[in-house]
Amino acid sequence: FELLRGQSMKNFNEDVVREFGRKYLAAKQDKTPADELYIEAQMLRSEMISIGARAQNVEERERIFTKLSRLRERFKNVAHPLAEYWYHHAWAQYYAALHEGEDFAEHMLGHLLKTLEICNNSPQICKGGERAFTVSKIAEAYYGESDFQKAFEMYDGLFKSGDIESQKRFYHTTKFVQI
Q1: What is the pLDDT of residues 111-140, one digit of tens each?
Q2: What is the pTM of this model?
Q3: Which of 62, 65, 86, 95 satisfies CB 3.0 to 4.6 Å to 41 for a cystine?
Q4: What is the chain's percent helix, strand, coil content, to nearest 5?
């Protein structure tokens, strides 16, 4: 599921990824509602990336917004940090790729900051990769809003932490140099 979900848009096949998500849930012996939330949030995130890559279709944007909104209601009693992390990441992706309006950056940043809070409060689930990814996305959001001081501070802290994965990401290294 994880490998298929991370495919480039050229090779992404939503039906195959969903099938493997179902297989993952069926094979998991101690499946919880949090596992279902995780799979659904990840699928919506992948779907949004796919929609964004194809075109800015209004009906598809509205469909994703409705699905994300219903997802919260469906899993309102679920308390699992990893599921919450990916749920908020899915919303951040929605605002980054599909939402139109002046408030998109504020909403996106709010969800990204929530994912960082989850990482900071649950280090057992955010062992570096998720946290570094989140910090990079927050820094990128600040950069996009021309808040170069905050972007610099986020990137600077990330690179000083010695996180190897972040230093390998040329895109974020380039943004850091630009600042």
Answers
A1: 999 989 988 898 887 765 777 888 888 888
A2: 0.64
A3: 86
A4: 75, 0, 25
